[in-house]
Design brief:
There is one protein chain. The protein is α/β, with parallel strands linked by helices. The chain has three helices and three strands. A three-stranded parallel β-sheet has the order 1-2-3. It is found in: Endoplasmic reticulum; Golgi apparatus.
């Protein structure tokens, strides 16, 4: 059985980034999830002025912590993928 965790962030609603970061940090520091892969999805990229992937990484405190698309760190795979659930794009690669 594959055990993984995903965290969906509204990339357009930057005023709620602090709330989302707090939730993500709680998951990342939960010892029972210490080796669980994490997928962070930045949603709503179809809306003008949504945060870029770099902005999202910065606000979530993930700069330098992600693996790089396609690379896997066996201790804790962690990656950000930008997506639009409405337009059905971007999230498929993350789940692969």
């Amino acid at each position: 059985m594959c055990r993984c965790c995903s965290h969906l962030v509204d990339a357009y609603d930057k005023e709620r980034f602090a709330e989302s970061k707090k939730e993500l940090d709680a998951l990342l520091y939960d010892e029972s999830l210490a080796t669980v892969p994490f997928l962070i999805l930045g949603n709503k990229i179809d809306i003008p002025y949504a945060a870029s992937e770099d902005e999202l990484r910065h606000f979530m405190g993930l700069t330098g912590l992600t693996m790089g698309k396609g690379k896997v760190n066996l201790e804790r795979p962690l990656e950000v993928f930008m997506c639009s659930i409405v337009r059905k794009m971007g999230y498929g690669d993350g789940f692969k």
